[in-house]
Protein 1
Amino acid sequence: MPTVLITGANRGIGLEFARQYSSGGWHVIATARQPNAELDALGVTVELLDLADPDAVAAFHRKIEAPLDLLIANAGTNQPMNGDTAEDARAWQAMMMINAIAPYVLARSLLPRLADAEGKAIAISSGMGSIGDIGPGWVPYRTSKAALNMAWASLALEARPRSVPCVLLSPGWVKTRMGGSGAQITAEQSVADMRALIDRLTIEDSGKFMRRNGSEIPW
Ligand SMILES: NC(=O)c1ccc[n+]([C@@H]2O[C@H](COP(=O)([O-])OP(=O)(O)OC[C@H]3O[C@@H](n4cnc5c(N)ncnc54)[C@H](OP(=O)(O)O)[C@@H]3O)[C@@H](O)[C@H]2O)c1
């Protein structure tokens, strides 16, 4: 039975990944900040992890002893919206940890377990992290996803000797708490598309930043 580790799996896109991989027969290790009834109902393995906590993030790999077929670094925040005040600046610092630094530290420490399974490392980025396709507003979020993109592209280089593909995916504009009810697609559709793409990824795709249909996004 293949194993997938999904961060931020208690709601939104992460919960939908947990649902779909679990019903597809995978062993799902789902991380959340708090115990969660919906994850318990799925019968998946739940591990508590706050990505804002550097000690917890750096130590987490010790909990994963078996080969890991797939890591989905999904957890993320879009707050603060702006960088105007000292309070915004503090929240922006925390966001950089949650959205960019923690995914990299976690993935790097799990590379041996991923290599054991010839596994793949996926980060859920965003088109808003693209400098080549920049738009207005949401500057903290854009910078955090651009930083995630650089960290994951660097991870791809580091993971190449172990043949672990490291790929950044944009899920589209998805109806979740973050995406809002006016978003274009459901989490079910986004995750189904991303799962199909993840299945097809090879080492040749490592270091790419892709839409869920597999087309590449400008950096
Ligand atoms: N929805 C969209 O349209 C869209 C578009 C592009 C990219 N994305 C990306 O897709 C990913 C999932 O987003 P979503 O739409 O599913 O958002 P969501 O419904 O807001 O879910 C965010 C998830 O991240 C977790 N999280 C936030 N801060 C955390 C922390 N400090 N430690 C651990 N977990 C934390 C949340 O846990 P709590 O419940 O504990 O807060 C929750 O599980 C994110 O990386 C997001 O940037 C989303």
Protein 2
Amino acid sequence: MQSSLLPPAITELVSALSSLPGIGAKTARRLAFHMVDGASDKALALHQALSRVQNEMGHCSVCGFFSRPDEPCTLCSNPHRTPGQLCVVGRIQDVLAIEEAHIFHGRYHILGGYISPLNQVFPESLHIDSLIHRITDEHITDVIFAFDAISDADYTAQYLLEMIPHEVRLHRIAAGIPFGGELEYTDGITLSHAFTLKREITH
Ligand SMILES: [Zn+2]
């Protein structure tokens, strides 16, 4: 079916949906048709959810997780999290994978990616300065790098261990995560092993 046959409003919806990660052209069209064809309640719910996310969601100024604007996130404001333990991850979805595996009870810091000069991601593009400040301000004793098993993550870990004060114990999870593997897609049991078998790294 030619997209030009469709009314502009639908073409626009298909195009917006297909720009999302993991949504191809056919899926985008199917979703758009589903919303238009007798599923107005679903379309309305989606519309409301999207505008709520846009109006009410921001990022925690401490750790980078989702939060309401100008408020700390649920993880940072939870008094029951173990103090002194900081798990550093690349992306928000890594926090979810670790939380769902119930293997870590301290606090998190989300870098926002990994250093990757080839992709124009430099240390200053990431939340590294705030990490270093937190380590001092929050009297962090243990930092755990829970990174994907990719070379950019290795490079980022190398970079960070130069910057973290020597008295802080550094650990890196690695065991069980295949090279090239992403935390987000690692099952809970493997992730749990990777945490249990984390190794201390010298710096
Ligand atoms: Zn937070």
Protein 3
Amino acid sequence: MCFGSGFLSCTWLGSMLMTVPLSPPAPRASPAHMLERLLSEGMTWGDSAQWLPALPTESVDLWFTSPPYADARAYSRIHPDRYVEWFLPYSQSMLSATRDTGWLVLNIKNRVAKSGPLQGQRHPYVYQLVIALQQQGWRWLETYIWSKPNAVPGRFGPRTKDSFEYVYAFAKGPKPYFDLNAIRVPYKTTPEEIERRKLDKLGRRNTDAGFGRDRTTTYLHGGADPGNVVSVPQTYNQYKGAGGHTAAMPEGLAEFFVNSCSPPGAVVLDPFAGSGTTPVVARRLGRRAGGLEIHKSFVDTARQRLCADEPDDTPVLIELAELAR
Ligand SMILES: C[S@@+](CC[C@H](N)C(=O)[O-])C[C@H]1O[C@@H](n2cnc3c(N)ncnc32)[C@H](O)[C@@H]1O
């Protein structure tokens, strides 16, 4: 038998009274203590709507997150028409808690409208959100494409399967931290050719169209610029600790942005942390990291995942991504 408001009191084994909170406890501490708690716990059971406004100003280097997509999952149903209105209070709080050199990096996917005048068409909520974030004061610096070489086939109507998602990178200030060297990929040419090109002293060569590359510097960096299409296979919850989370992102995606958008030792937070991919990866990479998640069961399994710290993306899938480059 259950009753009560805000708390669920259940009679168990006849004599034992258990009290199970229905919603996460509201945070109560100074802003600095709250941040320290997030970083020390790694995964915290909490509602970001309550936590984010209470964090210290200019304390976070990187928010890397995949919020609930519009109308997508059983765990949070946000209608696409109301998505921007739902998200803006979170992003406003994140903006004030971000350092001048910091970022909000948002993985999100658009969807096909299920009803209304746009039924059957792509709903524009993602683009509306990007414009609203820019108007809120975030500097929209890049749109990355997360390409999924192993996207599942299905029945999608008069279109192909979804094989990419967006990752939007917003900076707070004009000089965000960015380390291209941390995400370079192997050059495509042979080692002999690289050595030959390093000796090229002719500098920039323009084509008839006026474009050119300065080959004297291209091959001195130890690797190539990966570009803004990031190919990482979806892992389909292969990680046994993901606790059945239906939207866990692959670790390789988090690695790319943690490595490039935050220095070692930086504060990295995920306000919609799900199975904990962001804090798991960021901690592994030497950042101070924490995640907030509103569903307690996800928090419990994410904490086990943090403790186990087993790399999730399997080698065979990483090879698949290499082939797709
Ligand atoms: C797309 S999932 C994130 C998945 C995550 N990137 C991972 O790799 O597992 C979004 C998560 O946000 C959580 N969430 C939704 N609203 C929240 C809120 N107000 N505070 C904290 N978490 C929230 C949902 O329960 C869900 O687990």
